[in-house]
């Protein structure tokens, strides 16, 4: 799934050597102009860090103007960073986490109303953590306790904590509260009875982001169980009475390290008044 997050440190070499976030890439602010091409720009979120969050805010603006996407400023800088730090120059250039958020989420982030979000079946939290790093208050639920623990730890290290809950969304032991969320996200997971719970769990005006495999997927790999595969047009039918902001049904071509996959995704807004 690639890298989940790159950390770009824009301080001086001396500051970096004294203390930095392990795995961060150092490009001092005054060198950014000549070294813009070294900044990761493949859709992986880039957390930009300096000492107090001020130079990094300028760096974010500078890079955004040059077309670098998915940037965010690490508020408060390294001084406010609660996670581990390292000293010295070793490790400069490596990135932090081995998981990336879904492109569908990154590309459509601007459509999401800020507030409280829920990631259902979040796994190790790559999408939940992304939302938290972008300013959302995030709940994440998964039946796998180890995955939830790893998600919580990774989020805390990034200074973007999430509320990770171990829960089973299929057997009635975890129930989505009514009209509680501004955003509900589901990626790579399908349990059809949840469609109604998601509809009820969003606040009026809230937005669902749902993307998972379609019945075309078995041509490329797992899953093959039809109960885990969306039928053609299914997401559109489920949210047909809502405002559909994005809809896709496609085969994503194979890329190095990623087999092709057939997915459908929707972003839909619940009416403000029903
Ligand atoms: C393919 S993973 C997707 C994880 C994450 N959404 C992502 O895209 O990285 C499917 C996830 O669904 C979770 N899951 C399966 N059954 C579940 C259930 N009944 N309740 C909650 N989570 C469940 C699994 O533990 C796993 O983490």
Would you kindly provide a written description of the structure presented here, covering whatever features stand out?
This protein is α/β, with parallel strands linked by helices and 274 residues long. It has seven helices and eleven strands. It has helices at residues 13-18, 55-65, 103-107, 126-133, 145-157, 194-201, 234-238, and strands at 6-9, 25-26, 46-49, 71-73, 116-120, 137-142, 163-166, 181-187, 202-213, 243-252, 261-269. A seven-stranded mixed sheet has the order 7-6-5-8-9-11-10. Strands 2-1-3-4 form a four-stranded parallel sheet, with helices on one face. It is elongated and about 55 Å long. Residues 94-98 have low confidence and may be disordered. Bound molecules: S-adenosylmethionine (SAM).
Write the layout of secondary structure elements.
Layout: E1 6-9, H1 13-18, E2 25-26, E3 46-49, H2 55-65, E4 71-73, H3 103-107, E5 116-120, H4 126-133, E6 137-142, H5 145-157, E7 163-166, E8 181-187, H6 194-201, E9 202-213, H7 234-238, E10 243-252, E11 261-269
Parallel strand pairs: 1-2, 1-3, 3-4, 5-6, 5-8, 6-7, 8-9
Antiparallel strand pairs: 9-11, 10-11
Bound molecules: S-adenosylmethionine (SAM).
């Amino acid at each position: 799934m690639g890298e989940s997050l790159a950390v770009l440190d824009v301080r001086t070499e001396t500051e970096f050597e004294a203390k930095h976030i392990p795995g961060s890439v150092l490009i001092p602010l005054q060198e950014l102009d000549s070294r813009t091409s070294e900044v990761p720009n493949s859709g992986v979120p880039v957390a930009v860090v300096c000492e107090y969050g001020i130079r990094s805010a300028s760096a974010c603006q500078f890079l955004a103007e040059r077309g670098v996407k998915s940037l965010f400023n690490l508020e408060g800088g390294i001084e406010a960073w609660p996670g581990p730090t390292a000293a010295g120059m070793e490790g400069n250039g490596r990135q932090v986490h081995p998981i990336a958020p879904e492109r569908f989420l990154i590309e459509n982030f601007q459509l999401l109303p800020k507030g409280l979000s829920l990631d259902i079946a979040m796994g190790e939290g790559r999408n939940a953590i992304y939302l938290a790093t972008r300013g959302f208050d995030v709940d994440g639920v998964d039946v796998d306790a180890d995955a939830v623990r790893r998600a919580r730890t990774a989020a805390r290290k990034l200074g973007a904590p999430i509320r990770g809950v171990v829960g089973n969304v299929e057997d009635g032991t975890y129930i989505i509260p009514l009209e509680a969320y501004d955003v509900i996200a589901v990626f790579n997971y399908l349990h059809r009875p949840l469609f109604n719970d998601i509809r009820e769990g969003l606040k009026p005006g809230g937005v669902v982001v749902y993307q998972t495999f379609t019945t075309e997927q078995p041509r490329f790999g797992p899953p093959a169980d039809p109960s885990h595969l969306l039928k053609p047009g299914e997401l559109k039918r489920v949210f047909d009475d809502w405002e559909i902001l994005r809809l896709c049904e496609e085969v994503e071509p194979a890329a190095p390290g990623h087999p092709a996959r057939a997915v459908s995704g929707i972003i839909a807004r619940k009416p403000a008044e029903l």
